[in-house]
Amino acid sequence: MRLTDEVRDALAGGAPVVALESTIIAHGLPRPRNAEVAAELEALVRAAGAVPATIAVLDGEPHVGLTKAELDRVAYDEDIRKLGTRDLAPAAALGASGATTVSATAFLAARAGIRVFATGGLGGVHRGWVTVQDESADLGLLARTRIAVVCAGVKSILDVPATLQRLETLGVAVVGYGTAEFPGFYLRTSGEPVDWTVSTPEEAAAVVRAQDALGGPPSALIVANPVPVAEQLDPALHDRVLTDALAAAEREGVTGQAVTPYLLAYLTEHTAGASLEANLAAVRGNVRLAGEIATRLNPRSV
Ligand code: PSU
Ligand code: MN
């Protein structure tokens, strides 16, 4: 595993670090906007006073922290793979390059000693689970990894109540940030309740510290941070286009790892980019909040 000097020094010196995933860059956003976003997200972490560590696998080697050239490679390389945790060993052995999903990013971040991670929306239980058994590996990995993940809930293309139930079964803590409702990724709310609410970065950091103090089997903390209402996707448009997207995916026989990127791209295209803007607004908010939580946990400045 290769750490940039900046990330290594920050971790060694007890300075705040925020992990960022790369699948959203490589497979979740259209080129060339994705490259701009990748750089913007790192800048947002820095503005909060923390060091960004975007994670990806390049030529078989997991990288924690990327140079500008490496970030551009993740954004522009059309052959870059999508790697979950289970793909890391084959990729390492075969020298492959890939963007890391929430599961692989959380795994590598935790191994590097990073405590806070920001993303857009988690993977989860797909609609129609009864026939396809498609549940993102994100959930199982978060059930056994001590990391705080700031996200806008789970992608609304999923079965949200089933995903929340799985998180409960798996013992993953979920707190709403400034809300008692689980966010709906593109939407401010999914309509589902959450059991716990925190209202400030300090409170979120206190939950992280309490997890550390309690010990016990490692598991994640999901900090569910809704997109601001002014920047959410119009709920009626969302519901209509999502119904079409799910039908199109089924008609075209899209399965496995391709499902999530297919649906996200379909929504972007059929909302004339409005879903993309809502997605980006959510991610930006998550990255800012992750920076604020990380600086509360590690107050030493960088
Ligand atoms: N959130 C986004 N865009 C994305 C993803 C999340 O805003 O592209 C990615 C994450 O990397 C997540 C993955 O881990 O989608 C889930 O894919 P799957 O359902 O195949 O596990
Ligand atoms: Mn899947």
From TrEMBL:
InterPro entries: Indigdn_synthA-like, PsuG. Mn(2+) binds at residue 134. Keywords: Glycosidase, Hydrolase, Lyase, Manganese, Metal-binding. Its EC number is 4.2.1.70. It comes from Streptomyces coryli. HAMAP family: PsiMP_glycosidase. This is Pseudouridine-5'-phosphate glycosidase. GO terms for biological process: nucleobase catabolic process. The active site is at residues 21, 155. The lineage of its organism: Bacteria, Bacillati, Actinomycetota, Actinomycetes, Kitasatosporales. GO terms for cellular component: cytoplasm. It catalyses: D-ribose 5-phosphate + uracil = psi-UMP + H2O. It is an enzyme of class 4 (lyase).
